[in-house]
Amino acid sequence: MKNLRVRIAALILSLLLLLTAGSAAAVRKSCTILIRQAEAVLAAHEPAEEIEALADEWRRQSVLLHFFVPNQPLTELNTAILRLDALCAEQSDELPAELHGILASLEWIRGRELTAF
């Protein structure tokens, strides 16, 4: 009987460790994909298409991120990413600054996930 309890406890501990490692890997992967896409927008001569690709990628990756990251940073990122299209249409000088802010937020989320692990 005691041996069964130890096995169950070891199984539960192993599952928790796997979930933690899996969540860290998933968040890092999602943030890396979004960072690459945001850097492509920064490097683009005509950023309208790249902004659309970033918004599409954000819609896909944000579903996964909502499981592991608190809502406040994701809400701020969502607002910033949705602003990019308007800034691009106006040809605003704020576009690069907003992109750098998005990159900083994504890097913070990615780094924060490592400290939680």
Helix content: over 70%
**Class per helix and strand makeup:** mainly alpha
Question: Would you tell me the overall average pLDDT?
Answer: 91
Q: Give the overall form.
A: elongated
Beta-strand segment tally: 0
Main sheet? none
Strand content: under 5%
Number of helices: 4
- Report how far the terminal alpha carbons are from each other: 33 Å
Low-confidence stretches: none
For the CA atoms, what is the radius of gyration? 19 Å
Question: What is the helix/strand order?
Answer: HHHH
What is the gist of this entry?
With 117 residues, the protein is an all-alpha fold. It has helices at residues 2-43, 48-68, 71-89, 94-116.
Key terms:
117 residues, mainly alpha
Could you explain the architecture of this structure?
This protein has 117 residues and is mainly alpha-helical. Helices cover 90% and strands 0% of the residues. The chain contains four helices and no strands. It has helices at residues 2-43, 48-68, 71-89, 94-116. The radius of gyration is 19 Å and the shape is elongated. The two termini are 33 Å apart. The mean pLDDT is 91.
Q: Could you give the topology of this structure?
A:
Layout: H1 2-43, H2 48-68, H3 71-89, H4 94-116
